[in-house]
Amino acid sequence: MNTFRVGKLNSNLLNELVSSIKKKDPRVVVGPEVGEDAAVIDFGDKYLISTTDPITFTSYKIGWYMVNVNANDIATMGGTPKWLLASIFLPENRTDSALVKEIFHDIEKAADELGIALCGGHTEITKGLDRPIISGHMLGEVDKDKLVTNSQAKAGDEIILTKGIAIEGMALLAREKEQELSGKYGKSFVERVQGFLHDPGISVVKEAHIANQTAHIRAMHDPTEGGLATGLLELASVSNTGVLVCEEKIRYLEETRILCSEYKLDPLGVIASGALLIVVAPADKDAVLSKLMQNNIECSVIGKLTDKEDGLKIIAGGEERELPFFEVDEITKVI
């Protein structure tokens, strides 16, 4: 029997399962679909956006993480994150009141920063865990004319990338390998990379809002587990297109280059929260780039969507080749 490795479910199996789900309620505007970040439900004069995301790779600031990654999913649909429920599972014989209070504090702090109301949830001590695990369920809303669905993207649209790639992955690496990396690169280097959580930051709520207020956005997607390459694959899958990107246009922070080289990781496949893929018609490209840069958000056009028959390609070193595919996130080689 073939078993699966840690990380996202096998993409072929997931597609098979999701495609078999029947739409039973006409008010479900966007249901389960690989490449869409959240569900959308018709609530009269607005759409309700609903998402759920767990935190499993780390236990550091797990409550803060959970709020931000769920808020990102709401924002990529063009919405405003509003309401949060959290399910918190804590390890038996390793949990004390200090840990529980820290997690709750981090959830509340992150929610307050984004104007999100913590509405409820569930907390328990769970047998068999070696660290806390949190799953968030977040709701948001969006005006109907501002909803962004990735299925609307089409061949010829331009792909903008904000900030850079592997931001979250490098912060995780610097936290989990702190002692080892401090000995080789120094404490200040490690602290700087750990700080990637906040600068450039893993939240994409601000840039998603700016883009959606500037032009008609064809698609937005935040590449998370599996990195930029998987994010592009998901985007192409839901929009029924191909992809052509240029490696030279993809921003890598210097610390990312150093650590990926150190651990022999392909940065294209490293968990990438903090980056945002924004897809626009060519006529809207300059307006979106200009507005993002006015707000001190690094951004660049990295490629375009192509016809599906052209496949997923990357130009590297002047040569066109297949975009790499990652069955599991590269970070699992180390963490």
Oligomer: single chain
- How many angstroms separate the termini? 25 Å
User: What would the average pLDDT be, to the nearest integer?
Assistant: 94
Count of individual helical segments: 10
- Shape category: globular
Query: Largest sheet, if any?
Result: 7 strands, mixed
CATH T-level fold name of the largest domain? Phosphoribosyl-aminoimidazole Synthetase, Chain A, domain 2
Biggest sheet, spatial arrangement of strands? 8-10-7-11-9-12-13
Q: What CATH architecture label of the largest domain applies?
A: Alpha-Beta Complex
Structural class: alpha+beta
User: How many beta-strand runs?
Assistant: 13
Flag low-confidence runs: none
Can you give the helix content as a percent range? Answer: 25-40%
Question: How many independent structural domains?
Answer: 2
Q: Helix-strand pattern, N to C? A: HEEEHEHEEEHHHHEHEHEHEEE
Q: Hey, roughly how much beta strand do the residues contain?
A: 25-35%
Give a written overview of the molecule.
With 335 residues, this protein is of the alpha+beta class. The chain has two domains: 11-146, PurM-like, N-terminal domain (60s Ribosomal Protein L30, Chain: A), CATH 3.30.1330.10; 150-333, Phosphoribosyl-aminoimidazole Synthetase, Chain A, domain 2 (Alpha-Beta Complex). It is built from ten helices and 13 strands. The chain has helices spanning 11-19, 62-76, 97-114, 167-176, 178-185, 187-194, 205-214, 227-239, 254-262, 285-294, and strands at 28-30, 39-43, 46-55, 80-91, 117-126, 133-143, 158-162, 217-221, 242-246, 277-280, 299-306, 312-316, 319-322. It has a seven-stranded mixed β-sheet, with helices on both faces. It has a six-stranded mixed β-sheet with strand order 1-2-3-6-4-5. α2 runs parallel beside α3 (97-114) and α2 runs parallel beside α7 (205-214). It is globular, with a radius of gyration of 19 Å.
